[in-house]
Amino acid sequence: MATKIIPHWIDGVAYERSERTGDVFNPATGEVQAKVCFATPAVVDEAVESAWKASQSWRHSSIAKRMKILFAFRELVAKHAGEIAKLLTLEHGKVTGDAMGEVQRGLEVIEFACGIADLQKGEFSENVSTEVDTYSIRQPLGVVAGITPFNFPAMVPMWMYPIAIACGNAFILKPSERDPSAANLCAQLFAEAGLPPGVFNVVHGDKVAVDRLLEHPKISAVSFVGSTPIAQYIYETGTKHGKRVQALGGAKNHMIVLPDADMEWAADAAISAGYGSAGERCMAISMLVGVGAAADKLVPLLKERIAKLKVGDGLDAGSEMGPLVTKAHLDKVRGYVDAGVKEGATLVADGRTLAVSGRPGGFFLGPCLFDNVKPNMAIYKDEIFGPVLSVTRVATYDEAIALVNKNPYANGVAIFTNDGGAARKFQHEVEVGMVGINVPIPVPMAYYSFGGWKASLFGDLHIHGRDGVKFYTRTKAVTSRWPDPRHRGVDLGFPQMS
Ligand code: NAD
Q1: What number is the average pLDDT over the span 11-17?
Q2: Does this model's pTM top 0.90?
Q3: Burial tier of 259 (Cβ tally within 10 Å: 0-12, 13-18, 19+)
Q4: What residues pair up with 31 in beta bridges, in sequence order?
Q5: DSSP states of 411-430 as a string?
Q6: Residue range 412-451, pLDDT digits in tens
């Protein structure tokens, strides 16, 4: 059978150019299931020209028209949620329920963008001086690009393009080359919803495509989500080329458990947040910080739950955790488990021995749990991005918060406690962008903005919510004077308010 080719989406149609391609695996079987076109600089230029041309009329489209298309797109994404989710499972590996959840969270951003009539409103001050009014308007930037990671192939792009397009921009998406198909399906649905050709384009590929996007003079802004070293590179290169850039990076999320917490609840939360999506979430909990006696109670409860977790093909109804995305990533995560053992941490649950029946070539790793992890170990310092949960023990709350605040990453954090005062003190003192109180994965809803601090974000504005609208528009302040028929004559002085 001929290998399936995943094309780009440019100017409203599928666009196959396969001078360069990449392999797309099914992580559950380990087989190559398709080849994805990798854009050359010339293909990126074609996408930019298409977007540029489209942006020239889209920027003048009425708010009513933009909203109508967004509402129609929202309906189509909801109708095809199962189909999108299946693509996610086939290429990323996450289990069906998790994939459906991803589509749902993306839909919430589309729904937020449907409110653009209110979101893009400017301000107005009448009579700032006699007969003078000042108002601000929010205008689109033109062509903007989004570069996205493998772990949320539908949701993370949806953090960007519905809002960018609702604001009147044309958008070019460069999704992860590891799970590229959801982007094409969504582009198709947007076209079906009535979006004019060129307003939303998808170019697939690697660094070659990204570098051309970063330097292209007709691109005004770049949103990026991915690992910290690449986020920093995108921010530095994009801003050097005069672009507005928001680049969200990696994470090392801690969950502090105080001794007064409900331990059963904390254990359930830690398992869900540590092993959901095989730990391939930027908001996954990877470090459990047990304060005082908390870890002694927590570790046996975690071990009990791990033993019951069902790992398998994400398409199988019984699976709770799927495979990792690629063999290279599996090897990297296994390497961290080996390193943890070598560095002296206690391996309480060893997922390296797992075999999934009927799937000998799949990129599976069972849930791993370390205890007695110390801050100088690689498994503490690095983002592992796999099903590896580590427990570290501290004597006091102050030690716990110092540990979190010393970490270079600052995406998400959680505290589990029954003490409202301790929780309030924590939310005030912790230096992290997204905070959960008895909530292990505190992802804000679409109408708040998502983003970390420190090495988890390069740039000023977070993603979606009101920050998203700010990022994809620039404000213009207009001062206008419509005098009554009396004319006051020439005045060379600096205007004074009167
Ligand atoms: P990645 O940084 O390897 O890739 C992200 C994107 O950058 C992809 O589209 C990829 O093609 C491109 N890219 C990769 N190497 C590049 C290079 N050298 N030059 C230019 N472009 C390059 O990230 P990933 O492995 O796909 O995703 C996992 C990472 O994303 C994790 O670190 C995770 O924490 C992070 N992430 C962060 C958030 C957040 O909101 N902060 C959300 C999701 C994922």
Answers
A1: 96
A2: yes
A3: middle
A4: 26
A5: SEEEEE-S-HHHHHHHHHH-
A6: 999 999 999 999 999 999 999 999 999 999 999 999 999 9
Q: Is the pLDDT of residue 496 over 80?
A: no
Q: Hey, which of 105, 150, 330, 383 would you mutate to test ligand 1's pocket, going by the most ligand atoms within 8 Å of its Cβ?
A: 150
Q: In what order do the strands lie in the sheet with 21-26?
A: 4-6, 31-37, 21-26
**Distance from C-alpha of 450 to C-alpha of 248, rounded to nearest angstrom:** 9
Token pair listed for 279: 């730990």
Give the residue, by CA position, lying nearest to ligand 1 atom 18: 207
How many Å lie between the centroid of ligand 1 and the Cα of residue 228? 8
Q: Note the helical H segments in 80-180.
A: 81-91, 96-113, 116-119, 155-166
Q: Ligand 1: which of 237, 282, 441, 449 to mutate, most ligand atoms within 8 Å of CB?
A: 282
| Ligand 1, atom 17: closest residue by C-alpha | 207
Tokens of 221: 């802004």
CA of 425 relative to ligand 1 center, distance in Å? 33
Q: What is the pLDDT of residue 18?
A: 78
Question: Using a 6 Å cutoff on CB, does residue 253 contact ligand 1?
Answer: no
| Phi, psi of 394, rounded to the nearest 5 degrees | -130, 160
Cα separation, 266 vs 281, in Å, equals 19
φ/ψ region of 489 (left if φ > 0, alpha if ψ in -120 to 50, else beta) reads left
